[in-house]
Design a protein that fits this description.
The protein has 98 residues and is mostly beta strands. It has a single domain, classed as EutN/Ccml (OB fold (Dihydrolipoamide Acetyltransferase, E2P)). The strands form two sheets. The chain has a five-stranded mixed barrel. Strands 6-7 form a two-stranded antiparallel sheet. A hairpin with a 2-residue loop joins β6 and β7. It is elongated.
């Protein structure tokens, strides 16, 4: 699992049939200090995330383990919208204090 910030949306009017109905978002991977790592990922959204939110996402075969993505040809899925995290007892991010 990885942390990412939603930086955009992706629309594909023509796609493989099993991808119909999925919402795709563009993520920028971040570290625990919220620094961008430079990697962009397109992920299917299983939780209703929006641009600007920090999310938890999985890639590879784990991306096909949610109810929304089961048996679909996806390589990344957003499976949680992050509210807060701490490292070594220090709060590094709190959604409602930003």
């Amino acid at each position: 699992m990885f942390l990412g910030r939603v930086v955009g949306t992706l629309v594909a009017s023509r796609k493989e049939g099993t991808l119909e109905g999925l919402k795709f978002l563009v993520l920028r991977q971040i570290d625990v200090d919220r620094a961008e790592t430079g990697t962009y990922v397109v992920a299917a959204d299983a939780v209703g995330a929006g641009v600007g939110e920090i999310v938890l996402y999985a890639s590879g075969s784990s991306a096909r383990q949610t109810l929304v993505t089961k048996d679909r040809p996806v390589d990344a899925v957003i499976m949680a919208i992050v509210d807060t995290w701490e490292v070594h007892g220090e709060t590094r991010y709190h959604k409602y204090r930003e």
